[in-house]
Design brief:
The complex is a heterodimer of chains A (about 375) and B (about 300). Chain A is an alpha/beta fold and about 375 residues long. Chain A has two domains: about 240 residues, no CATH class; about 100 residues, abc type-2 transporter like domain (abc type-2 transporter like fold, 3-Layer(aba) Sandwich). Helix content of chain A is about 65%, strand content about 5%. Chain A contains 14 helices and four strands. In chain A, strands 2-1-3-4 form a four-stranded mixed β-sheet, sandwiched between helices. Chain A is elongated and about 95 Å long. Chain B has about 300 residues and is α/β, with parallel strands linked by helices. Chain B contains eleven helices and 15 strands. In chain B, α6 links the parallel β8 and β9. The longest helix of chain B is centred in the middle third of the chain and has 16 residues. Chains A and B meet through α1 and α8 of A and α2 and α3 of B.
Chain lengths: ~375, ~300
Amino acid sequence: MSTFGYLFIKELKQFRANPFMPVVLVLLPVLLMLLVPLAANMEVKDVRLAIVDRDRSTLSGRLTDKISRSGFFVFTSYEDTYEAAMEELGKGNTDIILEIPAGMEADMGKGESVEIFIAANAVNNTKGSMGGGYLTSIVSDFSDEIMQSGGFASHQPLKIVPQFRYNPHLEYKLFMVPALMIVVIILVGGFFPTMSIVSEKESGTIEQMNVSPVRKRDFILSKVVFYGILGLFAFTLAILIAHFVYGLASHGGLIEIYVSAVIFLVFMGGFGLIISNYSETMLQAVFLMLFFVLIFMLMSGIFTPVSSMETWSQYVTYILPTRYFVNILRAVCLKGSHFADLTFDFVMLSVFAVVINAAAVITYKKQN
Amino acid sequence: MDSIVIHSLKKTYGKGQPPAVDIRGDLCISKGELFGIIGPDGAGKTTLFRMLATLVSPDSGTAVLEGYDVMADYRKIRTILGYMPGRFSLYSDLSVRENLEFFASVFGKDLESNYGLIENIYCRLKPFERRKAGKLSGGMKQKLALCCSLIHSPSILFLDEPTTGVDPSSRRELWENLAQLKASGMTIVVSTAYMDEACRCDRVGMMKSGRFLTVDSPERIISGFDRRLVSVKSDEMFRLLHDLRGIGDVDRCYTFGETHHLTLKPGSRMTVREIGSVLAGKYGHKGVSVAETDATLEDCYMNLEEKL
């Protein structure tokens, strides 16, 4: 049997002998993919609304009716005064106050403009701003309706109707799921081989290997390949969940997804190797790895869009390989893009994989 | 024929540190020799082993094992060398047998054809073949480690403190095993902190601060001891040690098992009886017993250390 062969079998035996790791390998993608999209939901639903209706007219009745039909809001209370509603907001019983001024219907009839007041609690930023936004658009929509039905000349002859492509219902889940697939691959493909190499350092077995005729490159390769396969396994689990639970990746493009995953796994393997070259203990390795992984995850558009970052940090994302991988996954999963559309991302991802592995080999030689 | 030839080997870790190993001159270990290295913790024993085992490259000097240079021919050396580090370093999550099979395949050998060499040691492990290596007792782990470093029939075997933390019967077994291996023509270098074990070696190198203070057979080292050695006992052993150091003719004094050993300064004419009367009279010790005694390897070691 070749050197690589029995080293690979040794990895397999060790992995099987460990009562913990095989369970982690399966539970990690499953739990991550099933729980996080449900819990970390950025969609705004059930915004609690308090209405201060001082007009009490048919028109104000129509407005509140329209708001309730939109489905985004639950009415928590009808208050007589703004102060009373504000108290509710202070207690946290409501998120947004809508104040309809007295004499609205009469003023509208005269053709005068009326100011409708909206106060939003911005402690929960998303709920406040998104809810406020929804409410504003409903109110302006409503004002257009009356204008037209009343025969008034419309102030807004052109109406903007936004249509969201690829994710028509702006579901945060669809944005989130490809991101979580990347997290799975980072955790399995990056942490596992690093931990394995460092634990051999800690237990001293790496020295036993070093005094034997086993070449270092075979030793490292056996780990990178073995844990790369495990990474693909976990990634496949994630894809299956994405497809059957969230209905994602229905556009096909499995080849694009797997090719990019393999390139990224090669990158993570090389990256983990660099970390293990400079770590003597598990603790060091975990902290170093965690530091970089957090940057990879938080700064490359996995959870927050790159376009909403500061300009300088947008440039930083170009040196993070996760940026390209997440681009590929989202484009393939949501838009059904092909290799031809994503050449730049594939090339950049490959460049990173090659550069980091070259650096890993050089630093590895320097250490010994 | 020389199996190992060391020519002024030096290794320093980090700038401004004293050298970990600083061997001046030549040291030759012949084929089939059982060579012991004794020295305190931090003497440089492990670093010396690591340099010879091609794990660390020396700053200067050369070492040649079976005709192969540790720097130039390190790959050749790794095929003919068995190295058992002081710390248990086998795969603790693999079973006894899996470890043995793995290490055999690492050297491109199979278990059956080399089983003869380890049979004597492995027969004790046989009942635990399926147990995880990490769950073995200390002595069993040591036996397994020895088996794994012997599985490829090396021509040179390095053992770094193989008996530290091992019970006396296992220690004796290990030395019997080493004697058998030596009989088969294997060159064995072993470091130990136990002086009684060192006496079983053909030659012993006493190491301190990275240097060999003396290299000779245990008998000749002992016969070369040129001081008068006295063994002292009393009812208050701790105070006795302090009081003995107050006596002008006493050169060096240290605990030796249940008694204290002291060497007298060169040219001292103080007799055993005089020492006894000083202790009983001046210091008021009770139950004093003083006798001249023969030197052991440990006494030689203690006094060599002093000379440095």
